Amino acid sequence: MFILLKATLALFCLIDQISCRPMISTAIKPSHQESSMREMVKRITSLSSGAQIPCNNTRVMRVKFTDPKVPESEKLCQASEALKSITKCKDEYEPILSNLLSLHERNNCSLENGDEIYLRNFLPQLGNYTQGLIRNLKVN
């Protein structure tokens, strides 16, 4: 009786461990989407950790990252449109922009006119939003 109870407990523990673990293929090789997002966060962090963000006083269109009504692909598209508007310091932001473009397949999206934000404030918002997307990928 004791051996049967012990075996049942061990089986339940094993099932619990298996169900909590991510699949091996996702644990070994992150998706292209996740690696693009991680690269974006890395670039944003390196730009933000410097003495000053390049062209930090440049104004770009505001993206409402916290609006639940706007789909993720639309937010990513809007963020790429906002970064496309930067003419000075374009080389510093090109890797972030190319990663953003690879995350959505939209060619055009709408940004509301008039609501602008400084680049020094936009980049941390984009980084936080991207980190949230990475966390959601891991949960799902």
Verbal overview:
The protein is mostly helical and 140 residues long. Helices cover 64% and strands 4% of the residues. It has a two-stranded antiparallel ribbon with strand order 1-2. Helix 3 packs antiparallel against helix 5 (90-103), helix 3 (32-48) runs antiparallel to helix 6 and helix 4 (72-84) runs antiparallel to helix 5. The chain starts with a helix and ends with a helix. The model is unreliable at 21-28 (pLDDT under 50).
Q: Which sheet architecture does the biggest sheet show?
A: 2 strands, antiparallel
Largest sheet: spatial strand order: 1-2
**Percent helix range:** 55-70%
Oligomer: single chain
pLDDT < 50 runs, ≥5 residues: 21-28
Radius of gyration: 21 Å
C-alpha termini separation: 40 Å
Shape: elongated
Helix/strand-derived class?
Answer: mainly alpha
Number of helices: 6
Order of helices and strands: HHHEHHEH
Strand content: under 5%
